[in-house]
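FW: tagging you since you asked about this chain on Friday. Here's the raw sequence from the shared folder, copied in full. Didn't touch anything.
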Amino acid sequence: MQENDLRKIHRNLGIFLALFLFLQGGSGLLIAAGELFGFDHHEGAPQAHHAGQDSYPGEAGERAEEEHGLLGQIHHKDAAIWHIYRILVGTGLMAQLITGIVVFMKIEGRRRHAGKN
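HL: got it, structure written out here
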């Protein structure tokens, strides 16, 4: 594949995925930081939570997405459409990485070839 084509794919895919990657990464970051520093968010109110605790406070069987409110809905909602969403976001991220690496290798190859002349 030509480098220009790879760059277009990489750029367009990045523009399309930016919001989804921001939502997924941001929700995961906020959830992890909240758990690390001892707070979970249930219905908007912080609750004490001990860092490293494996289970969530509350009734047995309560799901993580319920514990984290809207962040949990975005990050790990247990419904088919959300599984598909996460698969597509993950696949898009992998495509971004691969096209970025291939473009980088082509640039490096040109740079090294130009240095030998």
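FW: The chain is about 70% helix and 5% strand.
HL: agreed, and Residues 43-52, 55-62 have pLDDT under 50 and may be disordered.
FW: great, closing this out.
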